[in-house]
């Protein structure tokens, strides 16, 4: 006879297993994928004579792979090196295959993928579901099966499929079909879709059940741009749609708010911590888009903060939500492990939208945040190297001081009734 706790564990395992099987049947991206993607920082720069270090070329991606390893990004989870648009020729070969630009990728995509793999990393590539890519290069329409097989032969591990030059009304058919072709190759390839973004933009009803069954991750909103205003434009739209979108996120299937701007031009140190914290809360894919050789140490520290990454990579895979707005402070929470029956641990982000030039003190009880485990919580500030772990009960007051356009990111781990507490620490 199974004990009550054993039955609970079996039931939870069944629920998790059922959720995973509803996702694209490739067993991939059980936590949000992490890596580096070219578009935001490098766009369609193809003039290698004028911009030899910044043009879309095999050298850019080889250098990036080198730096992901030498700078330690791979060790904290950044594994994917992903090409975006403008890598290919406008025309195909005589037998209908995609071909890389011969000047900028003289050794071909297979050789580049092999190089990335030799560094212990994964390789990703871009295409568009229509007749052309968004920048006017060869699209996959009419060549879907050939392209899926070509990607497999090249050693691709991740495919980003854009939605240009096609009718949005056909996306419910052509995006799932290409995912099927990818699966049929037998090579594991994460499938990233820009499908919902295009339909949302046309005011269409998006079939998120179908999206989540067909893709590992998907873009819901427009491209993030190099500004703090753009960052919060994305976040505000995620907050407005969170009750719809969040229910489809989980192991193998993720809403994608787009790339990390950290280490580029626009975001301050405080704003960079804010993006990293909220991408962690949202269980978002973590794809940097920066010039790794120029990332300053303080931004590198943000990108490599293993405790914040741990929130993002939490095995439960629950997308967090904005739960409260008060006096220019937004509160976002995400349930995380460890959990005990009905009580979760939480990551809590206190985000300042205030522009007054002084930090703002904010106090709230754990109960008012929805944290009601009677045994209390271990509280830690994930951005404070000198923080000590505190023990708080549900009726305790949590006190934070948030810098303008900054964030305080707290992890509140449940205290089990079986834990033994020695003084104020564990």
From TrEMBL:
Principal place of residence = other
**Single GO biological process annotation from the record:** glycoside catabolic process
EC code: 3.2.1.-
Query: Where in or outside the cell?
Result: Lysosome
Q: Which GO terms describe its molecular function?
A: alpha-galactosidase activity
Signal sequence extent: 1-23
Listed under subunit, the entry gives: Homodimer.
This chain belongs to which protein, by name? Answer: Alpha-galactosidase
Q: Does the keyword Hydrolase apply?
A: yes
Q: Which family does it belong to?
A: Belongs to the glycosyl hydrolase 27 family.
The family database entries (InterPro entries) matched by this protein are listed as: Aldolase_TIM, GH, Glyco_hydro_27, Glyco_hydro_b, Melibiase/NAGA_C
Give residue ranges for domain Alpha galactosidase A C-terminal: 317-406
Question: Mind naming one GO cellular-component term on file for this protein?
Answer: membrane
Q: Does the keyword Lipid metabolism apply?
A: yes
Keywords, comma-separated and alphabetical: Disulfide bond, Glycoprotein, Glycosidase, Hydrolase, Lipid metabolism, Lysosome, Signal
Q: Which residues form a coiled coil?
A: none
Class of this enzyme: hydrolase
- Recorded source organism is Macrosiphum euphorbiae
